[in-house]
Amino acid sequence: FAIYGFRAMEVANLRLEDIDWEHDQIIMFRVKGRGRGVYPLLPTVGNAIIRYLRQVRPQSLRREVFLTLKAPLRPISGAGLYSLISKRMLKIGIHTPHRGPHSLRHACAAHLVSEGFSLKEIGDHLGHRSSSATRIYAKVDLEGLREVATFDLGGLI
């Protein structure tokens, strides 16, 4: 989330075939009408996904990457991701007023703002349809999100 700025439902909908290991890419289908985006599969992300698939994910014929851990096995929901990530953030010492996947999305946007990307570029990266949805990130408190933006992705798995 913090690296790519994906929405919770985009991650929940991610399928095994959406990860192109040969070309080091993630194909992400945007949930709010922007089609699909192709993102580089960074080594830290790829390694975390491999670790999850080998050590955590229950064996299943389901094609979704992230599944519930208890029967009946089904794709994790957006609410399930919120709960999981919120608890994990607290456990690894990230204390922000707002937790969960969306705070990581904000952290991604804050990082892009601090790196000098334009609001149009940030909106395109986040899959926004209108610039008004991206303007909120121009007001982001960078200091308040720095802790979230720099956390270790491996700590979530």
Brief rundown of the structure:
By secondary structure, the protein is mainly alpha-helical. Helices cover 43% and strands 8% of the residues.
Topology:
Layout: H1 8-12, E1 19-20, E2 25-29, E3 36-40, H2 43-55, H3 78-91, H4 101-114, H5 119-126, H6 131-135, H7 142-149
Antiparallel strand pairs: 1-2, 2-3
Please explain how this structure is put together.
It holds the Pfam family Phage_integrase. InterPro entries: DNA_brk_join_enz, Integrase-like_cat_sf, Integrase_catalytic, Tyrosine_recombinase_XerCD. It comes from marine sediment metagenome. This protein has 157 residues and is mostly helical. The protein has one domain (8-156): Orthogonal Bundle (hpI Integrase, Chain A). It has 7 helices and 3 strands, in the order H-E-E-E-H-H-H-H-H-H. A 3-stranded antiparallel sheet has the order 1-2-3, with no helix packed on it. Strand 1 (19-20) and strand 2 form a beta hairpin. Helix 4 crosses helix 7 (142-149). The protein is globular. The two termini are 13 Å apart.
